[in-house]
């Protein structure tokens, strides 16, 4: 069901079984997701400006491009510094774009937006995303892209939901994160410095065996993901064992985890755990690590992920 355009855009309400999802057209944002009335992500109102990047679709890069500067195919580019406090280009070019509707039913919606060629990203790329609810498997989001330019384009994607493990806040929940490697970053700017085993600082980073998050602060990318079949699965639960899980396949070899620590402990401080599967790590436009190279031509399904109740 589609409702009128609001501050966060046109609202698309999806229902299947005990699930209900609200998708807002600005940023193709997952505004709310519930199961039998229980929040699985930190929601926000349709009539408010989306808090930061909560629930948005990240493209054509997730996370940061350090200093907003990168070199591709021998050409230097300078992106706008959309994270001015740290001096980086953050979370791509579509987070505040209005996505147009392509198709909709009671349980799914497909939205699309086009990145027009610009000085710092001179490729025309159309990004299409589908949210689909299944009564047994939860909410799956799929992201596809087509490069409509004459030359190959750098690309990456990921989501930005803040998962809710139950009553209380991040400190109270049990986290299972099957990753053996973490990307260290500088304390002030979160610029990547190198990979390390999670065992180097196990109390902060090692959640391969599920345990309470407690007071640790994390805003780091992980890799070295163990998989159940083809899927990496992160789960977040409360003391009763109920909660939420997020899963994705090998097209996302990275995941950013953020304990939602806000300066001044403002509204939303540690209210949810950001779990962001990514096709590439932070600053991939410079490192080239796992960067997707979109050749001109047909649409490519780049990645997908699923959020489900436990």
Structure description:
The protein contains two helices and 28 strands. Helix content is 3%, strand content 46%. It is globular, with a radius of gyration of 18 Å. It has a nine-stranded antiparallel sheet, with no helix packed on it. Strands 17-26-25-22-19-20 form a six-stranded antiparallel sheet, with no helix packed on it. Strands 1-2-3-4-5 form a five-stranded antiparallel sheet, with no helix packed on it. It has helices at 202-205, 284-287; strands spanning 2-6, 9-16, 19-24, 29-35, 38-39, 57-58, 64-65, 69-72, 75-78, 89-90, 100-104, 108-115, 125-134, 138-147, 153-155, 158-159, 162-163, 174-176, 179-185, 192-197, 211-212, 219-225, 232-237, 243-248, 254-258, 273-278, 292-294, 300-309. It is mostly beta strands and 310 residues long.
**Relative strand content:** over 45%
What's the number of extended β-strand segments?
28
Average pLDDT, to the nearest integer? 97
In terms of per-residue confidence, which ranges show pLDDT below 50 for 5 or more consecutive residues? none
Q: What structural class results from the helix and strand content?
A: mainly beta
Strand order of the largest sheet: 11-12-13-14-28-24-23-18-21
Radius of gyration: 18 Å
Q: Give, in order, the helices and strands.
A: EEEEEEEEEEEEEEEEEEEEHEEEEEEHEE
Overall geometric form: globular
* Ends apart, CA distance between termini: 26 Å
Helical content stands at under 10%
**SS element count, helices:** 2
Largest sheet: 9 strands, antiparallel
């Amino acid at each position: 069901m589609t409702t009128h355009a609001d501050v966060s855009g046109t609202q698309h309400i999806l229902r299947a079984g005990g699930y209900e999802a609200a998708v807002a057209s600005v940023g193709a944002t997952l505004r709310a997701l519930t199961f039998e009335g229980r929040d699985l992500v930190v929601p926000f109102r349709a009539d408010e400006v989306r808090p930061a990047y909560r629930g948005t679709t990240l493209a054509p890069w997730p996370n940061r491009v350090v200093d907003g500067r990168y070199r591709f195919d021998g050409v230097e580019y300078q992106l706008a510094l959309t994270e001015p406090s740290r001096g980086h280009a953050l979370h791509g070019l579509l987070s505040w774009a209005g996505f147009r509707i392509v198709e909709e039913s009671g349980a799914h919606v497909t939205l699309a937006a086009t990145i027009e060629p610009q000085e710092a990203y001179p490729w025309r790329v159309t990004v299409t995303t589908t949210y689909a609810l299944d009564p047994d498997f939860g909410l799956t989001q799929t992201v596809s892209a087509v490069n409509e330019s004459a030359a190959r384009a750098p690309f990456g994607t990921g989501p930005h939901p803040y998962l809710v493990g139950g009553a209380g806040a991040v400190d109270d929940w049990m986290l299972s994160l099957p990753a053996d490697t973490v990307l260290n970053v500088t304390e002030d700017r979160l610029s990547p410095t190198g990979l390390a085993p999670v065992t180097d600082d196990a109390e902060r980073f090692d959640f391969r065996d599920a345990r309470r998050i407690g007071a640790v602060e994390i805003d780091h990318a992980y890799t070295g993901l163990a998989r159940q079949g083809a899927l990496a699965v992160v789960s977040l639960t409360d003391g009763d064992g109920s909660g939420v899980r997020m899963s994705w396949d090998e097209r996302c070899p990275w995941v950013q985890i953020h304990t939602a620590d806000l300066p001044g402990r403002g509204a939303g401080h540690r209210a949810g755990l950001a779990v962001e599967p990514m096709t590439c790590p932070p600053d991939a436009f410079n490192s080239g690590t796992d960067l997707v190279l979109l050749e001109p031509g047909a649409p490519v399904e780049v990645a997908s992920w699923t959020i489900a109740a436990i």
